[in-house]
Write the structure tokens for this entry.
Amino acid sequence: MTQSFQPVRSRLVLCIGLAAVSCTSTADPEAEPEPARTSYANWAEPLALMPHGPEQTARVCARPGSDPVRDAFCNGAADGWTSLSELQTALHTDTSAMGPFSPTVTGSVGSLSINAHSTGLAARSVSAINPRVIAVRLVFQPFEMLAVGFTRGEQFVELVARDHLERNSLNFYLAGFRLPCNDTPAGCTPGDLLTPAIEHDWTEVSLYDEVDLANTTLDCAPCHQPAGPGMPKMLRLQEFDMPWTHWFWPRSEGGRALLADYTAAKGDEPLAGMTAEQITSADPQALTTMVALLNPTQPNEFDAFHIEAEVRASSAAKGCMQPFENHVPGESATWRTAYELAMRGDVMPVPYHDVKVTDAGKLTRMTAAYRAWQAGELARADLPDIRNVFLDDPQLMAEMAFSTDPSLDGRATLVSACSLCHNSRLDQTQSRARFRPDLDAMTRAEKDIAISRLKLPPDNPLAMPPARSRVLSDAARRSAIEALEQ
Ligand code: HEC
Ligand code: HEC
């Protein structure tokens, strides 16, 4: 059953052992022109290389900790789950019974929030037609909190829970799941991962905690414990206030524009256990309330109110009706200040300035393809990757936090693309701390390792930056390498 993953695993071990030598030799800079690095299908997926199955879950359960995630997973029940809905039921976050701020079966408060652009782990999968769902459950006496994030396209569910014993501590987990397609020679297609098919017929569920994820490209710490070990962990929500620019919300113009794009593609299809009615009444207020209870301030907050107003005014002056249209990208001084701060590497990326991150032409094509699949006119295996809807202008790619700003020189590119995970605040005992994007006191040998990592194709698990996080243009990659050669 694990067969299809074995070869990759041994390559990873080989590459780690010989990082500077064997991995470099596979990527000769003088060879063929580089392939476009924007496709999703060929990302390296770290979970595929990690141990999985009941033994993995047991390993997590043997470690200390007590919270609603462990309550659900650590009694052996997880080994029999075959769907998202079974996982949700076990966590008491059964979305089918939730509305914005609704009581759940257990007498607690539940809520559903949905975003159409994210700067989190699943950022590059999230758009209006493939949104990210966050279900939250709060219990007041004794106080308990659990948040569950799910995005189609990603074979994991993101979990954060407040620890029962360590009162102010948050525990982060991924519930990785496998599908029948993982065990076929061709692997999973967009049709397997981006339709309701991903929500059921799971063949295995495995729990990973922060110990397992540390120093991997799925590590939660860079964003959820940014000040480093021993410092508080935090919930994140950069769009902390009305009008919640990138969230489905029927009470804002932007929220309605996103919902219209969603509905055009998906119709009344259920998502993650929700009916179309639940989806169209999602409300980010509840998530805000929960995040504010634990983390009343967010570093580099996205000032949605001012940014939306500035974007509208600047685009209207050029004849573009934001938020419904986005052919003229908005301009916002408030947003630019936050963007420049993130570019200098001190804080995590800010969300895009406009409501929509989608290219109108691509969105129309992917919407039509999805509708054709729904109508039975297109086979599931032929569904294109409907995540491929983003604006692809290099400047706008950078502004959505998917790439680096074309104006940056090599050194500034490294700072902007690498500082999230490589900085002096995070755990300095981990191997990734050996690379410093400011190149301060870095030896020639360390710089050479970085050059070799930058030259790897995105499907290599050692490729840097990880494709999930950023994609460098060929020009940016070249100038980053030149800076490292000096
Ligand atoms: C690149 C930064 C980043 C990383 C890495 C990251 N997150 Fe998040 N996370 C966010 C942001 C930003 C949000 C707010 C919602 C959004 O933008 O999608 C968020 C939201 C969440 C939420 C909803 C509750 C909340 O805090 O708002 C959960 C649950 C979550 N993340 C779990 C995880 C887990 C588990 C990991 C690690 C396996 C992780 N995240 C890694 C940035 C990140
Ligand atoms: C999303 C987080 C993330 C980003 C962004 C990122 N890295 Fe990494 N990097 C890691 C992790 C995790 C490791 C440790 C695991 C490994 O060796 O692959 C690592 C390891 C490395 C190493 C090996 C260090 C050593 O000596 O073992 C180098 C070099 C490196 N990264 C360079 C870069 C460069 C250059 C960039 C930006 C262009 C970058 N990384 C961006 C997460 C990241």
Q: What stands out?
A: The mean pLDDT is 89. The pocket of heme C (ligand 2) is lined by residues 215-217, 219, 414, 417-418, 420-422, 431-432, 434-435, 446, 449-450, 453-454, 462, 464-466, 469-470, 480 (CB under 6 Å).
